């Protein structure tokens, strides 16, 4: 009996041994197929995101001007572009305006968006139609939106001042007053950002099980208490996404400001993003424009890392 077992094992051994070399090949083929699927995405990111970032960093250390396009020469200047940016009298103004523009826009967009998301969570006639209508500002081209709002906020013939005139209010210089221009620009940006916040937060609210609210209602947790102990903890991850994306987007807003005020009057609406634009495409100092852009990238990255770290700690606790 043992002899027959040994003979059987001996016959199967070569088959098993021959199968081992095929396993690494199968794993290698599976790995290669995975990489083939993601290769187009990796190539896209490398070409359209990686290369511009690296080129922008290199350019910020060069004297890169219009002459460079003809001669191909861009002398290395080290940190001179960054030094010129930080020493500029406009730098402090742009930083303050960027902070005010970002904080004002994000806070108002989030609060109004959250309120609308909670409102649309209730089912009522035409709720779907109104949600779709709410997306309209988000779908319009930004240049078109800024052109319409520039007409609405015009001091002499704007629709808003004509409406206020019915109540005896004199014309308000929304876009030509250094004290009001930034407020007007923030208001327009809030209008544009509300649909994004509402849509993402509404999708997050839809994922909260209704059974949690029913169980909490039995214990008397309704209204504000239900929001505090059920809704907010359940959508905290969605809130993190909305805040981070909103800040990153708002920091780089250029078209709305250029379409409404061009950065004026008296640089009252000039931000880091518009300053980078003016340095590169108005003054044709591409090196300094790249330096300002890199400062903006660092600010966005630091905020994202810090906010996500704080959010994770809050979730863990």
Beta-strand residue fraction? under 5%
The class by helix and strand makeup works out as: mainly alpha
Dominant shape: flat
What's the Cα radius of gyration? 29 Å
Q: Which CATH class of the largest domain applies here?
A: Mainly Alpha
CATH homologous superfamily of the largest domain?
A: MetI-like
How many E strands? 0
Given the structure, what is the number of helices?
A: 16
**Tally of separate domains:** 2
Report the mean per-residue pLDDT as an integer. 85
The helicity comes to: over 70%
Structural notes for this entry:
It is a single chain. This protein is an all-alpha fold and 317 residues long. The chain has 2 domains: 2-59, no CATH class; 84-316, MetI-like (MetI-like fold, Orthogonal Bundle). It has 16 helices and no strands. The longest helix has 38 residues, at 22-59.
């Amino acid at each position: 009996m043992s002899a027959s077992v040994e003979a059987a094992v001996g016959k199967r051994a070569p088959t098993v041994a021959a199968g081992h070399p095929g396993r690494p090949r199968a794993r290698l083929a599976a790995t290669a197929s995975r990489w083939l699927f993601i290769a187009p995405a990796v190539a896209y990111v490398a070409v359209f995101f990686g290369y511009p970032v690296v080129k922008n960093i290199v350019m910020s250390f060069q004297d890169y001007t219009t002459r460079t396009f003809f001669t191909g020469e861009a002398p290395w200047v080290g940190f001179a572009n960054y030094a010129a940016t930080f020493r500029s009298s406009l730098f402090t103004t742009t930083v303050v305006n960027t902070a005010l523009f970002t904080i004002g826009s994000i806070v108002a967009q989030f609060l109004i968006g959250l309120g609308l998301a909670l409102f649309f969570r209730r089912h009522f006639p035409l709720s779907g139609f109104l949600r779709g209508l709410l997306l309209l500002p988000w779908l319009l081209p930004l240049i078109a939106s800024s052109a319409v709002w520039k007409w609405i906020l015009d001091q002499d013939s704007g629709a808003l001042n004509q409406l206020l005139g019915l109540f005896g209010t004199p014309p308000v210089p929304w876009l030509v007053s250094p004290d009001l221009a930034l407020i007007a620009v923030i208001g327009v940006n809030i209008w544009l950002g509300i649909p994004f916040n509402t849509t993402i937060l509404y999708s997050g609210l839809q994922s909260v099980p209704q059974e949690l609210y029913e169980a909490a209602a039995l214990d008397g947790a309704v209204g504000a208490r239900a929001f505090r102990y059920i809704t907010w903890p359940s959508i905290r991850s969605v809130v993190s996404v909305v805040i981070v994306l909103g800040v990153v987007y708002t920091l780089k807003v250029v078209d709305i400001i250029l379409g409404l005020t061009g950065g004026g009057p008296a640089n009252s609406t000039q931000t880091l993003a518009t300053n980078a634009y003016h340095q590169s495409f108005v003054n044709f100092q591409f090196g300094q424009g790249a330096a300002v852009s890199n400062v903006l990238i660092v600010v966005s990255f630091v905020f994202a890392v810090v906010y996500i770290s704080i959010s994770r700690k809050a979730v863990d606790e």
